[in-house]
Amino acid sequence: MNNRDTVIKILAECSRLLIGVVFIFSGFVKAVDPMGGAIKISEYLVSFGFDKLQPFSVLLSFNLSAIEFMLGVCMLLGVYRRYTSFWVLIFMAFMTPLTLYLALFDPVSDCGCFGDALVISNWETFFKNVVLSAAAIITFKYNQRLFQCYTYWVYWFVVLYAYLFGVGFAFYNYNHLPIIDFRPYKVGVNIPQLMDIPEGAPEDEYKYTFIYEKEGVKKEFSLEDYPANDSSWTFVESKSVLLKKGYQPQITDFNIYNKTGEEVTDDIIRSSGLVFLLISPKLEMADDEQMDVINGVYDYAFEHHIPFYGVTGSSSETMDVWSENTGSEYPFLVADEVLLKTIIRSNPGLVLLENGTILGKWHYNDIPKEEEIAKEIDHCLGQNEIKRKEEGTLIFNLLTFTVPLLLVWVYDLFRFRRKQKRKE
User: Fold this and answer.
1) Rounded to whole angstroms, how far apart are CA atoms 169 and 163?
2) Domains of the chain: which residue ranges?
3) Taking the domain 256-381, which CATH number applies?
């Protein structure tokens, strides 16, 4: 192998590794939070005028995460190298112009390519896709030089298993809470602390300009030289340009109101003791199959003098209909729908607070029964146990994916060696 071939081989392998790792990471974090992916896809559909497709946003989220994950696995392991590199190239040929459009016209705040795990700007996303597109061209052109872990006879298994695992993993996180919470409102955080701005923290820096007019001529002045004491100039307008972003708290929009519009945020997050919040961004779309269990939690809270509130972005009329249909007796509070979707990926979902600290969060499929609540509260008070449970769930899913692939690799290796011996 000459120097040119060596350089091409190294470049192709680096491109393979880059695409494989990025696609696996992107697909994985999307599958961790498929509801978040569905919300982002809905933003895209609305921005581009495809509102009628919004009912399919969850299905699209599942498939997008699974396809990205599958392509990443196939690229990393050298499976169907020609077809994989071709479809990666097609994928990047679509996404790169799209992200350029997002960067130029900013129809959505961020592309959501890495979910909430890694939020990057639209321009950063575009430049990232330019690099990936170059890598995709290299892997497609030199696909037969790419490393492969398996023989052709088991390619089908790797492709099918990677895709089905991606769908199954997303389905699990959709029907429960994400096994990794990338948002600010994760279990263990103190909401008031994330809202506070430390003393001496840097503030936003702006450049201010002022437009004044004199004898029909308009002139622009800075903050230092504007004619404040010269009555011959007439003020027209002022402009401000952000030069440098100051300190930004992780939580800036946590505001809760009662039905009369009075803010009660401090009553919820700065009061001592436990507080249950049943969160539903839209009551009219909430799942009511677990209402007997939820009402049981309310009964427990009432008996033990623990405040229990429903928090929703819906109207008062919808709250009344919900209470009538479900037999619920807890009072309702009002908050922004986007905030509630960020706090918990469940409609409805249950949150337990203590002195503003999030002790526990439950998907409506996992809300404890009345006789189990005391035990669950004890578990929530032991944060280390919760962290161990989350780590155990993550490790279990990783082993579920890697062990079958490893076993198939061992089988494929021994099968290939037996085949070689027979030829000899």
Assistant:
1) 10
2) 3-175, 205-244, 256-381, 387-424
3) 3.40.30.10
